[in-house]
Task: inverse folding
């Protein structure tokens, strides 16, 4: 429903209600990777319009639940795609976000572009062609790491995929 509506208030309402339901469900079914995955996704979607501190806190909750989901279902490419997105966002935090993270957390979350790349490559290993967006992120990671030939290769591979692949759209635990 969140993806079908254009109204931002309605989107927030769907995400908020879904998060409440999934919070209860993940307590009852702690062994469900799907409960943890969708709780994380909804945390990310709800944080999109929040202040920097709230986005950062939501990003930490996002990571905690994706970590748990990966622990429960380590062969699910969707989970590595989401973790790759999280790592990429953390690696690209701006100065203000980094200062906020340092002020909020004794041990702030960290991730590198290399961490993001490893997660996106894991998606391809588990399910080649799973995600057009994932291949674009691989290209971006290689570009950021200074490997323009690998970046060009992955952009070409991304262009070969149809527009609608299997990854879940929406936020991946916005941290910045």
Result:
């Amino acid at each position: 429903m969140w993806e079908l509506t254009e109204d931002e208030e309605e989107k927030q309402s769907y995400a908020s209600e879904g998060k409440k339901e999934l919070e209860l469900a993940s307590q009852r079914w702690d062994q469900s990777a799907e409960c943890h995955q969708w709780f994380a996704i909804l945390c990310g979607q709800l944080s999109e319009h929040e202040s920097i501190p709230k986005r950062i806190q939501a990003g930490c909750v996002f990571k905690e639940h994706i970590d748990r989901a990966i622990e429960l279902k380590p062969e699910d490419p969707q989970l590595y795609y989401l973790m790759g997105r999280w790592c990429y966002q953390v690696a690209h935090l701006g100065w203000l976000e980094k200062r906020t993270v340092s002020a909020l957390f004794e041990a702030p979350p960290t991730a590198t572009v290399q961490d993001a790349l490893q997660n996106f490559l894991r998606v391809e290993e588990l399910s080649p062609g799973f995600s057009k967006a994932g291949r674009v992120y691989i290209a971006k990671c290689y570009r950021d790491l200074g490997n323009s030939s690998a970046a060009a290769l992955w952009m070409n591979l991304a262009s070969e995929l149809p527009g609608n692949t299997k990854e879940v759209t929406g936020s991946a635990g916005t941290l910045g």
